[in-house]
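Subject: Arrestin-like N-terminal domain-containing protein structure
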Amino acid sequence: MARSKLQIHIHDNSDDALCVSSNGDMISGEISIHMEKNNHSSDLVIMLEGTTTVSLQHEVGVKLQSTQTFLRLSQKTRVDSPATFPFTFVIPSALPTESCSHVVCDPLVRYAHTALPPSLGGKTPCATKNNKTDILTPNAVQIRYCIKATLQACQQDQEPVLSTIREIYIIPTLSSERPPPAFTPAINNSDKPSQLALENHDSPMKAQIVRNIFRRKEGRLVGEILHAGSLTMHLHRQRLTEATIPLRLGYYSASGICPRLHRLTISIRALTIFGLSPSPDISYQTQSHQSSVYTKTLQIATQDMSSITWEAVPCPTIMDPQIEMTYEALVPVSFSLSPDRPFVPTFHSCMVGRSYELEFRVYYQVGRESIFPRRFSITVPLIITMSNR
């Protein structure tokens, strides 16, 4: 048996290619068994397996690791001689209910935790020879799927004869077969709003505008994203995903002089939240050594704003007596996400979550300042979804 070999072949994929699939897809292929000797019958167990692994460094320097197997589909065949055996798996849209059996603060949390999580860490479909890893995910986090084949001796006291795995890459898409549950209010003993509203953010950002060393008040600058919504990327299409988001700027002037808009930069921030134990909420507790957040920021666009003009608008009825005029400017902000980046859909599983933020930085100048423009930032959550159409 020393020179025996077990190989996994997936239809429509070469043996060295990364198989990319989504929920509802069928993965089929063959397991080829080559054995020098075959003195007894064996069982061939073929599994589609999904696991989450999280590693953290303890305060005293000890490395802690936690692994959860959240998906395991299997089929079994009796093997009496070397041959080729077919297999077929359908990737589910949801995980079995027993995969999330811990305490949760709201039924919607269990709904989120039993959605199929995307592959994270390791090799990605957009990887190149110089970049083979997921640059948005820390090395401490891995969500991996694989086809696993094990040839087991019929006698229970014997070790497996042969075993091999083939990693596959799964990115879930929106599924109409899994509607969200009916609304049920969360049981919350505090007066604080539910942290399930993590994706919501509609408060404007403000900045006081002052000038010269005497800090003379010029006015107040307010920025607000009118609606961000969600951004849908395409799983199998190698093209840019483009979007336009309206940004409304308001300026409450004490001097009647508006700041000169200079330029705008747009960055996307990917936040990977992970912990050693399941979280009862989708917000995750990051204060202890049992959990952490990894942040990666990428600048995705720069936009010239020198041609944007302010328009005078009626002042609100209740206003600072120092404010003389109110101005507004509406800026359509355009950006695109490249398919060469390993963006995965927003998700929240038991131990790992991924969320996104868009940061808009508005650069402006006050008075005769011309050397270094000032900066004004607005950050809003962004939900990314995936489509296979």
